[in-house]
Design goal:
β7, α5 and β8 form a beta-alpha-beta unit. Helix content is about 40%, strand content about 15%. It is α/β, with parallel strands linked by helices. The protein has 2 domains: about 170 residues, Rossmann fold, CATH 3.40.50.1000; about 100 residues, Rossmann fold (3-Layer(aba) Sandwich), CATH 3.40.50. GO terms for molecular function: metal ion binding; phosphatase activity.
């Protein structure tokens, strides 16, 4: 039975708080919903910091720079966040690519911040031809055929993704630049489609990918996984991911999945504890300090 942190006895609360040193928190659905902050998360994280917990933030979004994340978190009331406390796809992927020299040329389906990071890191980018007029069947076909092969196709969130760009990515990934065989099709769905079309398995470098897990364990020198608490709102990409690392997990009901979802979840996606939201830590500490 998964216990709500506010239903723990005082002794259980003490044991829970003493059982972890580090907190890894998702952002969307835990700290904010898209761009709207969730009420009182700042004071809740401050209490965890004052209790001696080291806080790290993990996001699957590359639409903010480190400075942007720090500014947004600070405005919410979460202070003293440093770039090394932040993990998001562009940092993880660029680190991975640099450690694998075979990846020199790329076709990225990514946002502008991520793209600039790739260019400044020295990677060669295949650019889609700039299109200012409506496509004809001929111009569409011409635009999607790659002129040169690339070493990898990257898929992240691209708010300006077009059908032409995705079809060009498919042809790149299939390593058949001359192919005229084009099929007309959230990031996970794009990856599923890419894998089905190309018959190739993707390397997942965001949550819940195994490579990200290795990166986190190495980056923070984690030798005792159980001394880490992961807070997330998604039972698969957050809770299941953290469970696979051996972390304790706290599922919050402030995001995409519900209490009913938690009760029906597979064993590997079941959290250690749950809460209505991170804000419950305010009442948690009040009750603990009575």
């Amino acid at each position: 039975m998964v216990k709500h942190i506010l239903n723990l006895t005082k002794e259980e609360k003490k044991d829970f708080l003493a059982s972890f040193d580090n907190v890894f928190s998702d952002c969307d659905g835990v700290i904010w919903m898209v761009s709207r902050p969730i009420n009182n998360v700042g004071p809740a994280f401050t209490l965890l910091q004052e209790a001696g917990k080291s806080i790290k933030f993990i996001s699957n979004s590359s639409y903010r720079t480190d400075a942007g994340y720090i500014q947004t978190l600070s405005a919410i009331g979460i202070k003293d966040v440093k770039p090394d406390d932040l993990i998001h796809p562009d940092k993880t992927i660029i680190t991975f690519l640099k450690s694998h020299p075979k990846y020199k040329s790329l076709f990225p389906i990514v946002g502008p911040i991520f793209k600039e990071g790739l260019i400044s890191s020295g990677f060669k980018i295949d650019e889609m031809p700039l299109k200012t007029e409506e496509f004809t069947l001929q111009s569409f076909t011409e635009s999607i055929i790659p002129s040169n092969p690339v070493d990898a196709v990257l898929i992240d969130i691209d708010l300006n993704l077009s059908l032409a760009k995705f079809c060009r990515a498919l042809l790149h990934a299939k390593n058949n630049p001359d192919s005229k065989d084009v099929l007309v099709p959230g990031v996970e769905e794009l990856i599923d489609y890419m894998e089905n079309y190309t018959g190739k398995k993707s390397i997942i470098l965001g949550k819940p990918g195994e490579q990200l897990g290795h990166h986190i364990m190495d980056l923070f020198n984690i030798s005792c996984p159980k001394r880490n608490l992961f807070i997330g709102d998604n039972l698969s990409t957050d809770i299941g991911f953290a469970n696979s690392l051996g972390f304790q997990t706290l599922f919050v009901l402030s995001g995409v999945h519900s209490y009913e979802d938690m009760m029906k979840a597979k064993a590997e996606n079941k959290p250690t504890y749950f809460a209505d939201g991170v804000v419950d830590f305010i009442q948690f500490f009040e009750e603990l300090n009575k």
